[in-house]
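Posting for a labmate who doesn't have an account.
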Amino acid sequence: MHKSTYIRQYYPIGLFAALVAFCVVIGCIPSLQIIVQRNLIDTAIDGLANGSLQAFIVHLIRFIALILLSSLLASLLQFGTNRLNLIVGKKLDSQRVNKCLKVAFPITETQAFHALCEQAEKAAETDQAFFAALQTGIKSTIQIITSFVVLSSIDARTAVVIFVLLLFGIWINKNAAKNSGNIWGEYIQNMRHANYLSSLLLHREYAAERKVFHYNPEIENRYHKDCSEAIEKNSKLGRKRLISESITTLFSAIYSMAAILLLGVSVGNGKITIGSFIAAFTAISSLRNVASQLYGAVFDVSNHFSRLSGFFSFLALEEDCTPSSDEPTDLLKGIEFQHVSFSYPETSVHVLEDVSFILKSGMHYALVGENGCGKTTLVKLLIGLYQPTSGRILVGGKDVSKMCTAEKRQIFSAIFQDFYRYPLSIRENVSLSSPMPQSSNAINDTLDALRFDAPLRQKENGLDIGLGFLAQESTDLSGGEWQKLTVARSILSPAQIIVLDEPNAALDPVSEMAFYHAYEEMFASKTTLFISHRLGAVKSADQILVLHNRHLIAMDAHNSLMNTCEYYRELFETQRGLYYGSQS
């Protein structure tokens, strides 16, 4: 996207034009100050000689008026800029949030997505820096042009020489920026590994292992080696910076001396007055900094706008398709996987291969297998987060890929192993999967069944007490209590198909037993798919699906699997042996 297109799309044009006008006027004021300052000094000298200060007072009033006008315009510019930043920032953040809701789920699990997401989060901040640099560029450009016009009217020869020197100074600044622009970042990068090793030797959290493993001498030797290498690299960087700064300082001295000599000759020849000399030299001295600001602004405008490219790339990410299908969904038909295979993007290795099964409506199923066998992937395929590489998934006779997001939300509710702890109230947490907030009675009955922390609910705010640490009056929960909230959310959900991925992982034995009772009672009429590594917890399922090496190798009740599936029997006996000391 071009800069002008970006400004037209995101900036309120009227406010933007007004702020640009303010920048132009502010850029003109220094050149007016040159004229007024010259007249002020000359009339002061003439007034002291003639005994009349009337003209001096007039120019003094004008000089003060310019200062006041400059301050007023600067305040108005800041006020308008703050207003514009709020408008643009809100628009950028709104687009980012809306895009996050639409991005295809598989993309959200890639490293590239998270890198772009970080850049998109900083889009409003980057835009503020972009617009600030643009303002500086406009003001500096106008100030240089108008100042040279005025300086040319005072002493054309001096103006030309100063203009050439300024161009040369910009070239020097450009090379200095190359040599030392990111020197601090490079310094930190060079010292990073040595600093990490230093922390292993000094920080308290590593003290116990330092004592037990006696690794101090080895780490200390590596630290000295890395530190010496980093110091050598940083010394080279320091010498480059010193040379650049020395050249810049020398040029500044030559620039000032040239201005004094040229203006001094003109005063000596009677071509300009003392007032012109002082005003012109003051302006020439400030132009050196203004030229540096202009160069920096041009670089920053380009740099900050290029950083916004991450935001534009984020907006271009593939979105979930939201098909509009009139095909009816009859959940009594259950769930069917038809020869489903799946591999992640940019890989040819199947995570699941030719998986087929049917889950009947209203029955309870379990899914078991070793780590990495594809259990969570199968669940994400079922609820439509992933699309199969091949095959079809039917829910209620309808292909999941043809369901819109709203329809899938009505049908499915899921508890994931890595659940998020929302910093909301208890009521809001358990109502997230419902179209409307749940009643207090329904919430309390569900939480009582799960043995959720009763004293917490008896506090002043009851179910509306905040969780997490966003507010001062909020409180936090243990991992087990947070997991009970996620289970309660699924119990209270109107969805008819419930997926539970390790819902008992953080529960103590007493809470786990309460969960099983609640599961049997409150999910009695719903279709459930229970994933757990605790095979004793899935014995009561109507049928158990066994995954192994990407394939579904068996599907039956527990007793039948113990007789017919050697792999399942081995898993069960191994785990039972952990509790009873044998595999009998």
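Reply:
Got it, the structure tokens are right above this. The chain has a mean pLDDT of 84.
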